[in-house]
Every structure is written in structure tokens, then in C-alpha cells.
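Appendix C reproduces, verbatim, an entry submitted by the partner laboratory led by Prof. M.T., so that reviewers can inspect both the input and the predicted structure.
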Amino acid sequence: MAGSSVIGLDIGSQQIKAVHVERRRREWSILSAGIVPTPPDAVQDGVILSPPLVAEAVRQLLRDSRMPPVDTVAAVSGTHVLVRSIRVPDMNAAALKRSIRFEAAKHVDQGSTGISIENCAVEYEVRGKVGTPSQLDVLLVVAPQPMVTGRVSVIEGAGLEAVAVDVEAFALLRALDAAGWLPGENQAVVVCDMGATFTDVNIVVGNQVAVTRSIPIGGNSLTTTLASVLNVPVEEAEEHKRFMEVGGGEASHAAAVGMETPNMARQVVVPFLDELIRELRRSVIYFQSQAAEAGMSVAVEQVVLAGGGAQLAGLAEYLQDRLGMEIRCLDPLAMHPDSAAATQWQGHGAEFAVATGLALKEYV
């Protein structure tokens, strides 16, 4: 690595999260962590519309968390970010570099997304050779250029050094690895990152991301529904959400906010979660059908939760009951329980999963 001190910066539509990590060989420790609100309407669909406003919010986060201006890694995600394994004809590295944008264009649905390959950043990694005749197994990543340049502008505008813009799925993979939770042989894990506007579903096999997709289901939609049911402002509904339990909610809190029964909270949240469960099942079925076509049998028996939505009380128990899978919460702060960050953000560690994985990225 070029340095031992790195900030992982997770820029979302509702919040900006950062983790400052110190690396020494294979050991790492969290020096500090912080969260600030994202300026209203400054980030939409993963694109930073106002880099100066977001950069100022990041500067505030750095001041509040006492983070130094060090090397920084950010990430992109969302429906417009393509992560896919593709097969291309066997060729040397120079030829692949020349042709990769042409190969990528075959997988970008410009008609439905309105995104042109000419306006995208394209990265790739050769994983090996397969088949007869030999083909290259290539991991392809395509992201709209404004997503990437916006993050670089924010990092530099905040006085930090931009060393990489990664993909959130890969950051979560590193956080999973750091926790020692990578799946074993012939097994896969579903990593479910529950954000404000989207939930990213990633299926990990071994030490690789096999499937990644973004579902337009997030915490904001739950907050909006709750605000409508309770007839309160969205800000107040967000506060009520902290007391909700998927199992039914507390009677005392239900009475305090004017709910007719303690089950009203459950009536609000269950349809939201059931739609998420349907999408999770679809992702698993798709993955297993693809694996079967490749002659593999891979068991999917565990879901790992990350993101702000993972903190919803009773969520793990509800998902475990409906899916019949083991549910775990990815909390990188719990790996360093004696750190000041773990004490300060106790109960919120899952929100820092992406930022921690970004800070753990290797770079030259």
C-alpha cells in the first residue's frame, strides 16, 4: 500500500459516512468514524448533483470526527452500475485493453437506462481462462462517468487525496472478509445492504461477488409510509421508526404516538419487508439457476445485513423466520470493541460496513 492511514468515504443520498483506518501489514484498526447528513437533494440516483455542497459536508464530518486529510477511497453503486462476469475470446492483455469497451457495450442496455458506453468508466479484471476453445473469464465493471468524477470532485474539494473510486459490492466483500465470514466451499452468502433509497443485494461465492443488483426499496419508503399512517411529518416519522419492532412494536410507544394498537407498526413495516423478501428470493433463484447451468451446486443458507436499515428492531428474526436462513449483521466496529468509534457509535456499526470496506482497499 502507498500509505497506512486511509479514509473510506460512503456518500449516500441521506447520509455521508466515513471511517479512518490504520493499516500495519495484515493488521488494521479503526481510528475514528463519523456520520453527517447529506445536503438535501445533493445526491440523487447515485449521482452527486452539487459537489461543493457535499464537499462542505465532508469537511464538517472531518472536523467533527478529527480525521486528517489522508488518502481516501469512495464508491459507486445503484441500478446504473454494472458488475458482471463475462466471457471474451482469449487474447493478450494489450488486445483486451483495446477491445474491452466494445465488449462492455454489449452488456449496457442503453435503451432502458439512457446511458451511453461512451459516457461510462469501464474497468475489468481477468479471473482466468475457461472452456474449449479457451475464453477469458473477465469481471466487468461499468459506471456512468458523472458518478465517478463527482466523487473525485468531492474528495478533492474536501482537501483529501482521492486514490480510488470502488464499487460498494467489493467494499462489502472486504468487510465480510475482515469479519471472517466468507462462505466455505460450495456455499454462498447473500449480503443485503439496506440504504435510504435502494437495497443492494450481492451474492458472494468464495472470495468473489457472483451477483449484484440494486432494488428500489429503501428506508425512505418505509418512513414515508409511516408518516402517512401516523399523519405526522417525515422527520417525526423517522424518529418513530427507531422505536418500531417488526414483531409488533411496544405498546407504550404505540400509545405515545397515537397508534390505535401496538400492531399498527407491524402493519406498516411488514408489506415493506415482504417485498424485500420476494426480491431476495428472486436473486437467489437466479443465482442458483446460473450455477446449475455451469454444472455447480451452491448452497445459499445465510444472509448478512448491512446499512442503516439493518438496525430495524426485530428485522433479523423476521427475515430468519420467513427465509429459513441464518441472518447476521455486519458490524465492523464490533471487531474493534475497545475503539473510541465503537463506543461512540454503539448500535450503529452496520452503517459503517461500506466505509470500512473502502478503507481496507489495497491500492498501489
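The chain has a mean pLDDT of 89. Additional entries are available on request from the coordinating office.
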